[in-house]
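Page 37, continued from 36.
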């Protein structure tokens, strides 16, 4: 057996975000629409003190916006047993064990399940009977859209509350408390830099401040370089399989469609900075070129961007993506072709395989010719060649400007 050295340090290190975590609604910063006067959470708590009823909830919001803190405050206010789990490392049996061990004469405990979207359908299904029987109040937390990540039966038994990322004003308030607690100060530029770099995430803000303080030693005033050393890079919230990813790519495409070149470049830069696959972006540009742009040259440009990205890769291909974005955003828009095809596709789905007119059918054999295939065909006819049921139907037409 190798040498093992145990060091017993009685000093417990509590991270700054935990040390400053609000304990009451009055201490809670942000989410005014939920916890402020007239907010839904405040109303539910007031009602619960009168009727003893409190619903199961799903908190949907970005990292560091207060989901866990709010769940703890609710449990404390209701004076209920509180059990906290993360779906990343929890089995459904762990939750069921806690519920089954509760005294039936005691009010239902609150089970907080962070990252509930990580539970699969079968795991989420097993929570249903406990909620239905009133044996537990579930508070789930997710950064992903519950509409896609939480099963319908569970959504119907819970109330979804949307939390937003902290504003700059709210982060200033949080940092003011942190600076008093840690007896440290940020100069004006360092404060602004930290806020902008935190992407609305209070946890990141406090963690970076704590690291910067420790790295700075005896310095009492932190500057931008101290924050840069602690931060290393800005926190870019962009899970490539998550909701924020789809929000960003959607904003990018809609900006190009609206010919808003500046916002298109901004959303492109966000994707590139977050490390999105350049070929994914280029593929979307190829599709966009056919769907939304009037000139067929757009498809040539988009394909050239794709090939350039495939050949060159990052970091240089970001310039190809930018050039393609500017071209597509500033090009004249026309969705007539796309919309015409979709109208034709609707009829195919609606009517199935309607009989094709005999005169335009292929006639490779003598028998086919004898029964009329290809008979009367004229190369440059002005005759309507649609199936009889659709004669006179117009799919493609250019809208008047």
């Amino acid at each position: 057996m190798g040498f093992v050295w145990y060091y017993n340090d009685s000093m417990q290190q509590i991270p700054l975000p935990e040390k400053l975590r609000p304990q009451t609604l009055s201490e809670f910063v942000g989410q005014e629409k939920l916890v402020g006067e007239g907010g839904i959470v405040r109303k539910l708590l007031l009602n619960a003190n009168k009727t003893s009823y409190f619903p199961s909830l799903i908190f949907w919001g970005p990292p560091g916006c207060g989901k866990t803190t709010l769940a703890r405050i609710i449990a404390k206010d209701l004076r209920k047993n509180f059990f906290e789990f993360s779906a990343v490392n929890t089995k459904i049996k762990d939750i069921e064990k806690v519920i089954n061990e509760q005294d039936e004469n005691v009010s239902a405990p609150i089970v907080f399940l962070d990252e509930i979207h990580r539970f699969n359908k079968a795991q989420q299904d097993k929570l249903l009977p406990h909620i239905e029987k009133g044996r537990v109040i579930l508070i789930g937390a997710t950064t992903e859209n519950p509409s896609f990540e939480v099963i319908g039966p569970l959504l119907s038994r819970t109330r979804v509350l949307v939390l937003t990322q902290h504003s700059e004003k709210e982060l200033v308030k949080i940092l003011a408390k942190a600076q008093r607690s840690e007896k440290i100060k940020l100069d004006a530029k360092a404060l602004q830099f930290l806020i902008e770099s935190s992407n609305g995430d209070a946890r990141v803000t406090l963690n970076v401040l704590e690291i910067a303080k420790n790295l700075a030693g005896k310095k009492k005033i932190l500057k931008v370089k101290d924050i840069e050393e602690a931060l290393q890079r800005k926190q870019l919230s962009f899970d490539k399989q998550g909701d924020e990813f789809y929000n960003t790519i959607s904003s990018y495409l809609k900006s190009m469609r609206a010919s808003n070149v500046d916002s298109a470049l901004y959303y492109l830069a966000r994707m590139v900075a977050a490390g999105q696959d350049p070929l994914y972006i280029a593929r979307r540009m190829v599709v966009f070129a056919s769907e939304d742009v009037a000139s067929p040259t757009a498809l040539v440009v988009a394909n050239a961007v794709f090939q350039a990205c495939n050949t060159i890769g990052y970091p240089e291909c970001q310039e190809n993506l930018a050039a393609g974005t500017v071209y597509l955003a500033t090009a004249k828009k026309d969705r007539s072709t796309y919309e015409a095809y979709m109208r034709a596709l609707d009829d195919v789905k609606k009517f199935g395989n309607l009989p094709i007119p005999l005169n335009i059918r292929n006639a490779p054999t003598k028998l086919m010719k004898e029964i009329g295939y290809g008979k009367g065909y004229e190369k440059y006819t002005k005759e309507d060649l649609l199936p009889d049921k659709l004669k006179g139907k117009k799919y493609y037409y250019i809208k008047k400007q």
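The longest strand covers residues 137-142. Flag for discussion at group meeting. The longest helix spans residues 297-312.
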